[in-house]
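Project standup — Tuesday

K.O.: blocked on the structure for the chain from last sprint. Re-posting the sequence here as requested.
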Amino acid sequence: MLEILMANDLLYAAAASILAPVLSVLSIYIVNILRGDTGVRMISQHRARFCMLILDKLQDRFPVVAAYYPIYESSLRRHSAGGQTQDVGVPECTGTGSSVQNGSRQLGNEGNLGSMDSTGGII
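H.V.: unblocked you, prediction finished:
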């Protein structure tokens, strides 16, 4: 459904009903990237990138999305830095315009908001 909405440029019309589910499922994908087997990680990486594209597109009109975007971006970056994933690309957050048009970048290890304990939890 989200792919259809995005392809037809209807995300803004459905934003109120899709924001909470996108944020929720993105959290699940991040856990799957960290703890899933290879196949689950690959699918979760793809779907997490898609969710980040949706959030990137909506953050210019919805301040709550702009507030959460860096948190999820940092979490994806942290899991990539831990060697658990392979090159998870996340759209660049520039603050002006859509970064989808600016392309995506490879995640680095800068800007971690927390550290991981031995069980994979944030401390």
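K.O.: great, moving the ticket to review. Residues 83-123 have pLDDT under 50 and may be disordered. The helical segments are 2-7, 11-35, 38-58, 63-81.
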